[in-house]
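Record format v2
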Amino acid sequence: MSDSTASMLDVLQGFVHELRGAGLPVSMTENLDAMRGVEHIDMGDREIMRAVLGATLVKQQRHRAAFDTVFDVYFSLFSPAAADRAALDLPDELFGGMSGDMSGGGAGGDLSREELAEMLLRALQSMDMDELRRLAGMAVSQFAGMEPGRPVGGTYYLYRTLRQLDLDDLSARMMGQAHERGQVPDDPLGERLAREEFEGRLRELRNLVEEEIRRRLVADRGVEAMARTLRKPLPEDVDFMHASRDEMIQLQRAIQPLTRLLAARLAQRRRRRHRGHLDFRRTVRASMAYGGVPAEPKFRRPHPSKPEIIVVADISGSVASFARFTLQFVHAMASQFSRVRSFVFIDGIDEVTRFFEGTDDISEAVHKVNTEADVVWVDGHSDYGHAFSVFHDRHEREVTQKSSVIFLGDARNNYHASQNWVLQSLQKRARHVYWLNPEPRGYWDTGDSIISEYAKYCDGVFECRNLRQLERFVTTIAEG
Amino acid sequence: MGERFESVSDVVARLRGVDYLADDNIAGVVFLADKLEKPVLVEGPAGVGKTELAKAIAQSTGARLIRLQCYEGLDEAKALYEWNYKKQLLRIQADREHETSWEVVESDIFSEQFLLTRPLLEAIRAEEPVVLLIDEVDRVEIETEALLLEVLSDFQVSIPELGTIVGRQRPIVLLTSNNTRELSEALKRRCLFLHIDYPEIERETEIVRVRVPEIDANLAEQVARVVRSVRELDLKKAPSISETIDWARTLIYFGRSEITPEVIGETLHVLLKYQSDIAKARKELVDSPGERKPGIAATKR
């Protein structure tokens, strides 16, 4: 075994270790497969390397983003950008760029911002990847102001670099030039397609800049430290209440497939669970074949009793995103229930079922809930007590033995009266009363949270901070 | 060890030879599957060419494609083998006149000629190179999955009456899944994983040109760009590659050489299958293509 293979195996072990640290389940066999796999390929080719490691180590598409992040960190030193440089003086060059030495950037060291923009524009027009990569490197040297050992994340440097490059301006100029050359047909459709094309190219540039920054950071801080800073929760573990904008989008996209999987699983289980009642007529008919002996009992098809779901959700600021996801999730699962009704409240309460019925665009419906529902009574601060008593007056009689009532909220009542007798009487009427709280259990009953007041009359109170927990809960109720 | 391909670029070239355009990821995984002799679990949205990939591998390596289409209720008898009991009955009845001993009859009716081979056994026994495609594996029950696992891990099967049949070669095995349910951990562990997504614009343009040879380069690129734009919308079902190809063919058929909003309006139903999706795309691309929510492209992907 050559030295380079040996060191590659070390890198791989660190890599797998970090994947596990990020929460990906990598088994022993998969680890071995990866090691056997890389023996067959040219390790210099990063994309092939990514393909091989991805195929052996990641078996779920929703874990792929986490894998890619770790991969980019661990193999940033094997990137094409790195391969370009003489391997030996790599470290020197890296710090040269970082020490704020503006002229350290190879050929055209002291380019002005305008000159760099010009060159970028030209490279973007022809999509000359090598040139773009070189320019991205120069941009990082000039604008990021990277200092060795400084404990800031890559996003900070990325932001500084991109601000100087002014991508919006570049996009506008690309558009302008394309217009001048008559490359864009003079209609709105052509315009739209061209803009999408240019946005795609700029995204490419942004990725190159990001890659360059990551490479330098890794060289400065070492692979492990860097990977740890970038570690993000997997989509199913993202906390609803603290999700960033990107994570929100990820969650949105995770919901659909998840509900589909869950619905399929539930349907299958329900079908197989047990047979229905004895079908007397068909049993007698079948007994004719055996001379009147009912040797072959026949059964009715089971009638799975699907519960009716009533969701009552707090949509005030602090828990809004949680309520939104849960509503979306439950409505996406509507086929598993005989009916889903939803109510939203802040201090007033409004039924929003109508937004969801008759449309298959659930995100549109959620948008309507946020803008059109009449949920403010006095001041727009959560008042569970008032909302519940109104619910009691208007809708209590519609709650029956078949209904499961699910309350969503953090039970932070702004010190209003709890009116928990509403839940008490609901519990008598309904099949089940559940409460989902998006706060960590440790915060319950602190400050103005009065969850235990309500918990007295619930059949279950669940912590529900991420998709994983939400999925588990929905399985429980759908099974009856 | 598999020796079908020499290198990743060899995979790309050979697949290209049969009109399948593979990217680095696809080619890398196929190469690895051959070298490590492991089955590949292929996932991805409907119509991105999962089944096509298996066909292309078979064609490019000169192997026979054996396909096992999965469905709910698929069992051993339909996947592996079954005794042809009607023929066995006939054989026994035909024997009534002669005083043949039971042992003779038994050894006779449990011989090869009474065996109905199903796809899995066929793949194991094949003399010539084969590619085994297990299509839509997510449709079978967990129990059948266990059966598949057993076969895939050793590539042998024991038939009580005949003994163990060991595969003479290791075929390339592809399992496709539309992800309607989560497959078992054990199955995933034994497979390589390949997620095929919608292609990049350049690749889709090429695919269109390869599959619709009469199209000119410019129109093919326009097709790919419009399709990408459509996929950016928030749709119930984004257009698949096969729908892109259908659309390109439709355009040729109507004799269009240029894509205008009107042309899109006329032919959108080829690309999209849900009424709500068609309405949405029409609104975005045909009625007011200029107005576009800012930053939508930036937030996606």
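The mean pLDDT of chain B is 85.
The radius of gyration of chain B is 24 Å.
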